[in-house]
Amino acid sequence: MKTLPSWKLCLLLLPSIGTIALLMGSTLYMVVSQSFGLHNMMGDSQFSFEFWQDSLQDTKLHVALVYSVKVAVFGAIGATIMAYPLVLWLRKPFTGSTAITGMLRAPMFIPGLVAAFLMVNVISYHGIINESMIWLGIIDKPIRMQNDSFGWGVIVLQIWKQLPFAMILLAGAVNSIRSDVLDAASDLGASSWQRFTKIIFPLTLPALQVSLILIFIGALGDYSFYSIAGPKNAYSLAMLMHITSTEFFEWNKSAVIAVVIMLTAIVASLIISLATTPFMKKTGKLK
Amino acid sequence: MMNKTLTAIAATVALGLTTQASAYDLKEMQWNQIVEQAQKEKAINVYVWYFQPRFRTIFKDFEDKYGIKVRVPNSNEKGNINKLIAEGKRSAGKIDVMAIDAARMPSLMQNNLVYGPITDVLPDAAKLKTKLNGVETGGYAVSFWGNQTGFAYDPSRVNEKELPQSFDALGKWISDNPYAFGVNDPNKGGAGNAFIQRAITNMTGDNEAYYATGFDAKNTTKWSEVWTWFDKHSDEITITSSNADSLTRMNDGEISMAPAWEDHLKGLQAQGAITPRIKFYIPEFGMPGGGNMIMMPANTSKKAASMLFINWITSAEVQTRFNEVFGSAPQHPDADDSKALVSQEQRQFSKSFFTADYATKAKKAFTENVLM
Hints:
The complex is a heterodimer.
Chain A: H1 6-35, H2 50-56, H3 59-89, H4 97-105, H5 112-123, H6 128-135, H7 152-175, H8 179-187, H9 192-203, H10 205-220, H11 224-229, H12 237-246, H13 251-276
Chain B: H1 2-22, H2 31-41, E1 43-47, H3 52-66, E2 69-71, H4 77-86, E3 97-100, H5 105-110, E4 131-132, E5 135-136, E6 142-153, H6 167-176, E7 181-184, H7 190-204, H8 224-232, E8 237-240, H9 243-251, E9 257-261, H10 262-271, E10 279-281, E11 287-295, H11 303-313, H12 316-326, H13 344-347, E12 350-351, H14 356-371
Parallel strand pairs in B: 1-2, 1-3, 7-8, 11-12
Antiparallel strand pairs in B: 3-11, 4-5, 6-9, 6-10, 6-11
């Protein structure tokens, strides 16, 4: 078969690579440059480490980083832990399984802002939960649940929103395990838990790794859940970035926070990869 | 043939626009000539970032009176300013009239983006304010909207005879009624920032520098006393998400009192979104009042119609209507403000907002020392 010369291949690839380089590369370049005082939105541009030094000593950034990482970790682990039993339950089709799968995927189609408002309505001072508990005589007066200081409200929303995504990724891996492998394990005396820990879990680790990374990154940079349902004593990284630029007019420090979000996502992805890869049974290069 | 026709049409349209944009000088025209020219211009785009649906309804009166169509695009404040700047170098921009925060005016005027002084043309100019929130616009913009902060409260849960009038009384009320006092995040609503500014002036003393341009960090050294006060009450005050969240929580019965905007509360009550039971007062220790201005970009191609609209919106008649519908404080001295939520006696407690540098510093310091 005749192959194209390399220069023609390069030309054919140029539209897609060029788009990526222009759209993503230029944005990345701008944000990194601004974090070092270049391409300023206001005032003179001058290379400086000042914004990084100030930001890295800023308690607001420390609080926001810890809070965002905490919610992202809880959200990613929570969504995947809940996804496993559901995926295993729905592995073999049964009457109504399609409807259940459809319902479980519904959160993917509900915008985060809408979901956050719905949840706030449910847990508000005179929301459904408080009113139900008063009606049942469990409590005398409503409990203040909205914007809890730990961030449980945001964590619950992240798990709810990301669960279908984790299910789609894990379902592909679980369904690819042949039934005769699991049947053989049963014949050899393996219990359900042993089948999960010795066969299913190791064989689905690559999918788990991908879902943990993608959910973590999504939750880390999210804005809407944190803004509506988050605690009032902490801003997430995305909120702090927005407020730093539009309320405090510190665009360079805002760029520093943007870079911190990206670096945190990269570091977390590496940690998840390094922590899970040694346990994978199914390894090999993609061909 | 087709190309020639299209070129001819384009040339005619371009010539028409150019003629329209530069054929007259408002400052050399009589007011009746301006009205006559305005009616020939048929339609204007008015950019205002809030209450757009209700403004569209009220602006129909202008349309009926002068036969000039008013379009109010959906937009936000920052987007409007960005559009004005982006279109600044065009010979004719899309924006004909624009509502604006006074703090934004100096930089826009420096960049020659604003037409003026409009007070050289407006017949009622002598009665209108050209200075707002400490910013003098030199007649390039006039105030069309007055808003006042104060405390919204629920009289079914607050004894009206014991409404706190001093900061000491407020502190005691907060301690006696834990979680009943709400303050919104100042980064997401001006009422919270207004309260913080008054906390600063009441606890550390007022300073003329807060209302002048320029910034000196030495003027903020005592502010730590204010953050200590907030820390002391941190387990008794409910921090809310925004101006609207404060009123929603009051409506829901979670809190009983919170800093709020008079026009915001009245507007929501008029919509039926907030119970009419909620009342509003300005405490004796003062709460800031301010407003918004209106101006026309330098590159509007419909200067006569825009000027006529600005004259109409700042008139006593329309200002009275705004007071009835929105609860905004009238900006024309001949307007009637009897439908306002607060009495004239209480308006004497109205104070000025800090200028932008000190207001931003207050928000940032509150975020660092109280919120996070």
